[in-house]
Amino acid sequence: MPLSGNQIEKMKVKRDKILEQAIILFSEHGYNDTTISKVAKASGISFGSVFTYFENKEELFHHAVVERLKELSPLLLDFDPNAEDPYKELEAMIDKHIRLFASVGTYLRLVTQVIGQHQRFERQFKELDRFYYTFRYKIADLVAKGQSSGQLRSEVDPLTSSIAYTSFLMGIRLNLADQPEHDIWSDFAPVAIRLFGPNLP
Amino acid sequence: MPLSGNQIEKMKVKRDKILEQAIILFSEHGYNDTTISKVAKASGISFGSVFTYFENKEELFHHAVVERLKELSPLLLDFDPNAEDPYKELEAMIDKHIRLFASVGTYLRLVTQVIGQHQRFERQFKELDRFYYTFRYKIADLVAKGQSSGQLRSEVDPLTSSIAYTSFLMGIRLNLADQPEHDIWSDFAPVAIRLFGPNLP
Amino acid sequence: MPLSGNQIEKMKVKRDKILEQAIILFSEHGYNDTTISKVAKASGISFGSVFTYFENKEELFHHAVVERLKELSPLLLDFDPNAEDPYKELEAMIDKHIRLFASVGTYLRLVTQVIGQHQRFERQFKELDRFYYTFRYKIADLVAKGQSSGQLRSEVDPLTSSIAYTSFLMGIRLNLADQPEHDIWSDFAPVAIRLFGPNLP
Amino acid sequence: MPLSGNQIEKMKVKRDKILEQAIILFSEHGYNDTTISKVAKASGISFGSVFTYFENKEELFHHAVVERLKELSPLLLDFDPNAEDPYKELEAMIDKHIRLFASVGTYLRLVTQVIGQHQRFERQFKELDRFYYTFRYKIADLVAKGQSSGQLRSEVDPLTSSIAYTSFLMGIRLNLADQPEHDIWSDFAPVAIRLFGPNLP
DNA sequence: AATGAATGAGAGTTCATTCAT
DNA sequence: AATGAATGAACTCTCATTCAT
Prior knowledge:
Four copies of one chain form a homotetramer. Chain A is an all-alpha fold. Chain A has two domains: 1-54, Arc Repressor Mutant, subunit A (Orthogonal Bundle); 57-194, Tetracycline Repressor, domain 2, CATH 1.10.357. In chain A, 74% of the residues lie in helices and 0% in strands. The first copy, chain A, contains ten helices and no strands. Chains in contact: A-B, C-D. Chain A binds a DNA duplex through residues 1-4, 6-7, 11, 14, 32, 35-37, 45-49, 51-52, 56-57. Chains A, B, C, D: Pfam families: TetR_N. Chains A, B, C, D: InterPro entries: DNA-bd_HTH_TetR-type_CS, Homeodomain-like_sf, HTH_TetR, Tet_transcr_reg_TetR-rel_C_sf.
């Protein structure tokens, strides 16, 4: 007798709940200080049940890192590298990114841990790195377009600009880690655009 | 019987050795996965001896974070906020910072951990934050000078520029965590200066 | 609604399948390393269903030990202690036993476990011991007959001979545990008869 | 500062105590039902200390099996396959073996487990098997000598006799597992000699 | 001061069993 | 009857810390 649709739905909800709590706890206390028992308690289930949904702690961590990435990546990649007006597209992109980074602080602390200890979290790091590859090259494309059109200065390589920009985003996120998610973020949009060397009037 | 000068010297050397290895191990494997035993082995002493020099693991971690900070902070603060030519001073500062950040990658991964989990490492975070307060305001002062002199554009608040710059430095460091310490870093100096909004000819 | 004959038949088949797999797994991996889940998988059913047929793991083990014993005991006791020609009967018996022991290796490893840990498997051990009592005395009777008739030497007590013989059978089985079930076994028939002290011409 | 001789002595005593209790518990309750905690309690030390002496449970079990074997093997091999009077030597050997098997019942139950589950305890089984190889061939040599001298009948291969004999010993040990170690054993010496086919007057 | 044996709290994980579907 | 999600007791093992030598 297979599980009913209702059952499956309930399980999906439970799984999401665990993952959500896992992201919070992993990001706040780190991998080792987040015990399965704490995740279970936070999720309102018995600790044995966590193992029904995730084979082991490693796997839980992996899914916490990777599944959220899958959700976020289309949002981060939501800009057109071949836009008619590259500068305007860049401004819009920065605006979106800053809003997004401001809102997913908890998850990004998790990302920070993975990057900071990439040898230990090799598997997770690879997934992040794969996305990051796509991300930085897509931005670089847009920058190149802006340089060709004369909207951006050309003395810096587009890829270097792109890396600088993404680093800046992560740096801000790290820096404001303890700040509540608020307006401060919007102050940084006009600074971010400077990284790309706009040709000002 | 008081310790001879020679004895004291020997102990200082040993203590430094432990701290040095602790920084490496804590930054590579994180707090929990760095055991006292591993630090002792890396330092060439018995694990029991670590407790002769540091009361407990927490304390060892604390000193690993704080003592190196004490060494680095004068280097990071080595610029004159009242310089005659603020723009030139800024360029020189950026150059120094980038060289420095490129060379202390291991330590900065430790810093990243503390910042990323500031609730957990509250005590260490406070020390870092105290320095960071001084650091960002000193930079902001120099930026304000540059704005007054007309060398820098004024549409962004000096403190915001300062925070953006320091975030950028940390972001680059995180981003290039897996890179050997090399020339890539120097590529970012011309990008960094952009953050301050230079009035270009 | 009572179960149909067909249903009952199906269940019997399923129960036998479980028992068969349980014997294999228990004998190969021991009690603790044989999980209900593994037995279920080997039997092609869900692990929950095992509990439909056997109250708990202990009970499953018990039936695995005892039910096969019930099948085997008439075969082991298939000789006539009052045979006209006791020596010939003994030879025939040994032949049967050796063939049988050669063919039920898996089950006998289970028996070995129960005997080897009789305190732990007290209940199962008692069942085996009850059979063994009958078994050894029946053999002893035949030996006594052979001694009276002068076919066997009399310096050893018939019961001692009987115990020696049954021990020998188990010992061989244990010894050849890793051997495939083959001809080696038949080599031991002429040795076995020696245990009874035949009066050779 | 290295450990003093006294310290080392104390540790050796403690290690032996653990091993002794481990043999008892493993043989009575089996591998899985013998917890490290029980071994520690029986040995009068803290549970953590077991790991000071044995890397893990597997290792403890291994040493329990192997170290005792090392002690026993010279005793079991203490006969001369080239003796002047092979039959007499055989009788003396049987006598020694039977006394020995009677006295090391606990250990032999451990051996039984290893043999009975040789796949699981592969490493231990190999060690036992290596000894057994030497053992059975040395006996076979003595038997061959006895056959040449005409003291033993020749219709059975010496090696087969040897295997039969060693199997018999283990079988008796298994059979009398629940018996206190007493005289019953001596009854089996005259039966054992029969296995070798003595040419009786 | 230096060593490392001793300790036990606490972690991850397994699995028999229950029970709702 | 059949399924498999839920539970938590019990296990192995790690490691910071203490302390006798």
